[in-house]
């Protein structure tokens, strides 16, 4: 679920940070730049793990900022295909179930990836699985659900001209990183069922 990813970057330390140790200033800048952000084709960066190498700082002309080349590792959330994860159901639609983790909300289980015999109850706004024994099991909101990762989707969200931003609907904005899960195998689904 979590991996270490090695990256390099040019970090700028401003004169106001000269009073703290260089390593701490570098860590603060790297965490501010990467923590809780999606890196395209890498995953969701959680935090800095360690700094492997850093160059001598070069003072920029005019500003007094110090530029340092840094090689470092980040802890990244990127589950592998087939991994089983436990999350909570945030809501259900006729298209499927939205699931969240404590730190990540972009998980979707499409209706085609639910147990055979599942149907959407419009009055309750939940999915219901009718078992072979004619029992009805509900995918209720906020229930813990165990799902299997089937796919991941990265979207390159390039910046939009501010003049055009108002004309875009919120539905046109796709998340930068999204997981597609499934609940159609034994042991998957609402944790309380098993």
UniProtKB/TrEMBL annotation:
Main location (coarse class): nucleus
Q: Which Pfam families match?
A: RNA_pol_Rbc25, SHS2_Rpb7-N
GO terms of molecular function: DNA-directed RNA polymerase activity; nucleic acid binding
This protein's superkingdom? Eukaryota
Give an example GO cellular component term for this record.
RNA polymerase III complex
- State the compartments where it is located: Nucleus
S1 motif domain location: 82-165
Q: Which GO terms describe its biological process?
A: termination of RNA polymerase III transcription; transcription initiation at RNA polymerase III promoter; tRNA transcription by RNA polymerase III
Q: Which UniProt keywords apply?
A: DNA-directed RNA polymerase, Nucleus, Transcription
Entry's InterPro entries? Answer: NA-bd_OB-fold, RNA_pol_III_Rbc25, RNA_pol_Rpb7-like_N_sf, Rpb7-like, Rpb7-like_N, S1_domain
Family under the similarity heading: Belongs to the eukaryotic RPB7/RPC8 RNA polymerase subunit family.
Role of this protein: DNA-dependent RNA polymerase which catalyzes the transcription of DNA into RNA using the four ribonucleoside triphosphates as substrates.
- Protein name as catalogued: DNA-directed RNA polymerase subunit
> What is the species listed in this Swiss-Prot or TrEMBL entry?
Drechslerella stenobrocha 248
């Amino acid at each position: 679920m979590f991996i270490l990813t090695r990256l390099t970057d040019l970090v700028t330390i401003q004169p106001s940070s000269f009073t703290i140790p260089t390593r701490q200033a570098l860590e603060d800048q790297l965490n501010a730049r990467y923590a809780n952000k999606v890196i395209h084709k890498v995953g969701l960066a959680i935090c800095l793990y360690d700094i492997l190498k850093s160059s001598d700082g070069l003072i920029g002309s005019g500003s007094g900022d110090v530029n340092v080349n840094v090689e470092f590792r980040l802890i990244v959330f990127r589950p592998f295909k087939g991994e089983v994860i436990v999350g909570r159901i945030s809501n259900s639609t006729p298209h499927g179930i939205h699931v969240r983790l404590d730190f990540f909300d972009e998980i979707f289980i499409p209706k085609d990836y639910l147990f055979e015999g599942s149907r959407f109850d419009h009055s309750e706004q939940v999915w219901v699985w009718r078992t072979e024994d004619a029992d009805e099991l509900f995918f209720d909101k906020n229930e813990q659900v165990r799902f299997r990762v089937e796919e991941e989707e990265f979207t390159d969200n390039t910046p939009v001209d501010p003049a055009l931003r108002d004309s875009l609907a919120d539905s046109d904005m796709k998340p930068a990183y999204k997981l597609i899960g499934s609940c159609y195998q034994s042991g998957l689904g609402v944790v309380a069922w098993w």
